[in-house]
Amino acid sequence: MAFDVVRILVINGPNLNTLGWRQPEVYGHETLADVEAMCKAEGDRLGAEVECFQSNSEGQIVDRIQSARGVFDGIALNAGAYTHTSIAILDALLAVGVPAVEVHLSNVYQRESFRHHSYLSKAAIGVIAGFGSHSYILALHALKHRLDQTPSAQVN
Domain 6-148 belongs to what topology? Predict the structure, then answer.
């Protein structure tokens, strides 16, 4: 069933506010503001309302995920380093029951071995990694497609 307006929350975790100048050879040259503008523009093209949030604090990310229940239809989440450490974020994703896509700018499997494990994948409908800022666009498309295929009774 197609939605009139799908609401997607894009969450960015620690250090993503440093995009554009932090290790551009790994993360690219776009700033977080660039990524957020790109996500909102793509949301408009998809007929989806996109809201963006960034925090370096694990607790604030957990709070934001919890507040998504009944408000957002999907979550695109780049939890940064918390991907590899946060059971609290995993538990929040499992609790809210909002479909989520795990997003990474870099291909984490070409990096340090500690980045190869994700606590969050268990709660994600999919993982997109290695396409730079385009990873977010792919995540929005994946969420919109999944939500369009989901009967309304199963979505918030």
Answer: Rossmann fold (3.40.50)
